[in-house]
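We were asked to recover a plausible sequence for a given structure. The inputs and outputs are reproduced exactly as logged, with field labels preserved.

PROBLEM: sequence recovery
POSITIONS: 143
GIVEN STRUCTURE:
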């Protein structure tokens, strides 16, 4: 999901990481998105640097389950659940925003996990320091 929408990565990182929770969504009709989960999961933990990566709260959301009544499904639910089990029993939800199926439940899980882990881990981001010039502006607009 992140790699296809770069501005979403920045927005989600800024809004969700400080609350110590993070959803991962994948489209059940594409095997490619599922196959990148290991890389994405490891990269996320590497970048976030939580003090206890094994306890960092994730959830996995398989979205768009309404497409073609599941006939184009490339990733079986059993395979997704097996991946979640291999990562410490990450909660897994299959959702459809179109049919309003399991969306609220997934978000409630995110909120519950965030509250449960609120004080568990500190996450420090690498910051970029802006260079400020000491030269005085001599003319023109102050903007």
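RECOVERED SEQUENCE:
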């Amino acid at each position: 999901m992140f790699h296809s929408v770069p501005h979403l990565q920045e927005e989600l990182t800024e809004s969700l990481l400080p609350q110590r929770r993070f959803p991962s969504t994948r489209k059940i009709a594409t095997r490619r998105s599922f196959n990148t989960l290991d890389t994405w999961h490891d990269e996320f933990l590497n970048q976030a640097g939580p003090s206890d990566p094994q306890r960092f709260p994730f959830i996995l959301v398989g979205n768009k389950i309404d497409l073609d009544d599941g006939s184009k499904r490339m990733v079986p639910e059993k395979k997704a659940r097996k991946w979640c089990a291999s990562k410490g029993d990450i909660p897994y939800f299959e959702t459809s925003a179109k049919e309003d199926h399991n969306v609220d439940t997934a978000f409630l899980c995110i909120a519950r996990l965030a509250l449960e882990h609120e004080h568990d881990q500190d996450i420090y981001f690498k910051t970029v320091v802006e260079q400020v010039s000491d030269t005085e502006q001599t003319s023109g607009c102050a903007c």
